[in-house]
Amino acid sequence: MSGEGQVQAQASVARAHWSSRWGFFLVTVGSAVGLGNIWKFPYMTGSNGGSAFVLVYLACILIIGVPLLMAETLLGRRGQASPVGTMRALVAEAGAQRFWVVIGYVGIIGSFLILAFYSVVAGWVLEYTWQAAGGFAAASKEVFAQAFADLLANPARLIFWHSLFMAMTAVVVLGGVTAGIERANKIMMPGLFAILLFLVGYGAYAADLPAAWRFLFHFDASALNRGVLFAAMGHAFFTLSLGMGAIITYGSYLDRDTSIPKICLQVAVADTVVALLAGLSIFSVVFAQGLAPEAGPGLLLQTLPLAFSQMPGGQAIGFLFFVLVVFAAWTSSISLLEPSVTLLVERFAMGRRQAVLCVTLAIWLLGVAVAFSFNDWKGFSLFGLGLFDLLDTATTKFLMPLAGLLIALFTAWVMRRADVAEEIGLRGAAFVFWYRVLAFVSPVAILIIFLHVLGVLG
Ligand code: PFF
């Protein structure tokens, strides 16, 4: 048996599986729904012209996101191993160049780098949850802006919350695939949905839901420009967790009887609905308080506490809101830790505990550097970017589209068509349509984003 064949055989014998398709649905929605939906989507919509951004974002999810989500899940389920092991097995099966294993490595590196800054942002959210529990004292806009600036200027506080968040993530992943990851998602995801529905209901009752609705859905073509287009495309990748090994890894724990297209479509719909509901509930509050929607990354942490401090029932609502954001961030970060853990377990025959410790420690260290990049190490920059922006840019603008491009090409052009058809379980025109989108539409769309990012397309 070849080396690759052995990897596949060993991996599939001992491989854990989700207990049901519902389990897979929840963990994958858990990965997809995160800070991207609740922190990034609203502020990006706010600073990119509202409804124009929303429309392009929806189109990108449908045209690029869903076909790729299906392809990535397919790779994981067929490979039955870590992102790297999966790609080795599939390269062997297709008799392809070893080059394609790079898809696995890009995923591992990308998930590692994302978690290093994601956990620092999640740390901010923990701090605000803590403050929300005590209630935000009524104060001016400037005071809330200063409070956020003070947090960023204080490395000890940033590192404390970042460390706590990494520990929370590690504890769940330590529990294993079903007893840890699946169980945590089964508790947090329904909780997240319930809180979100409640908050939207509150928005309709006490805040300005109609204004939020107009802002998100009354399409205004004049706000559409190239910057909006690319921002929306990039965000479609981030929000669906594409290309970073998370989906391959979760797909590798999926059983053979589940229909990949159907469940991927459901995941994308759930992710989009959460982003839109979060946008509605946040902008309802923003408009009711007469605040500016284009506040940027600080929208969640500067504007909302101000609003919560002024509105009726604001203390309870504010606390619930931040708990929701913690749940969203936690279930996503779990999916960012697991790919590297499975790789160490598989390649170095480590126990899960040892692997979780090693990866967590390494990511934690990089996260500490990210925390310092807001204060003591502010002077350090590469290509004009501080460490935080550097990691964000390197992953969302380069590694994610790169991985997406390679995944589309590998699935449509390198794997045997019969193997792809067998694994995806689509037949007739539906298969041909998906296959062609993956072969032509996705690569061309991604290449255009890439050329733009590299400055070739202005
Ligand atoms: N999809 C997550 C979010 O929207 O916050 C972020 C993410 C998770 C990106 C997992 C990539 C990933 F592999």
Q: Estimate the mean pLDDT confidence.
A: 90
CATH topology: Hydantoin permease
| Distinct ligands, ions and cofactors found in the model | 4-fluoro-L-phenylalanine
In CATH, what is the class? Mainly Alpha
Poorly predicted segments: 1-13
Number of strands: 0
Q: Give me the Rg, rounded.
A: 21 Å
The portion of residues assigned to helices is over 70%
If helices are DSSP runs of H or I spanning 4 or more residues, what is the number of helices?
19
Structural category is mainly alpha
Distance between the termini: 51 Å
- What best-fitting shape do the alpha-carbon axes yield? globular
The largest sheet is: none
How does this structure look, described?
- There is one protein chain.
- The longest helix has 35 residues, at 314-348.
- This protein is mostly helical and 458 residues long.
- It has 19 helices and no strands.
- Helix 9 (177-206) runs antiparallel to helix 15 (314-348), helix 11 (226-239) crosses helix 17 (387-414) and helix 12 (246-252) crosses helix 15.
- It has a single domain, classed as Hydantoin permease, CATH 1.10.4160.
- Residues 31-32, 34-37, 111, 114, 238-239, 241, 244, 246, 332, 335-336 line the site of 4-fluoro-L-phenylalanine.
- The site of 4-fluoro-L-phenylalanine (PFF) has 16 residues, from helix 2, helix 3, helix 6, helix 11 and helix 15.
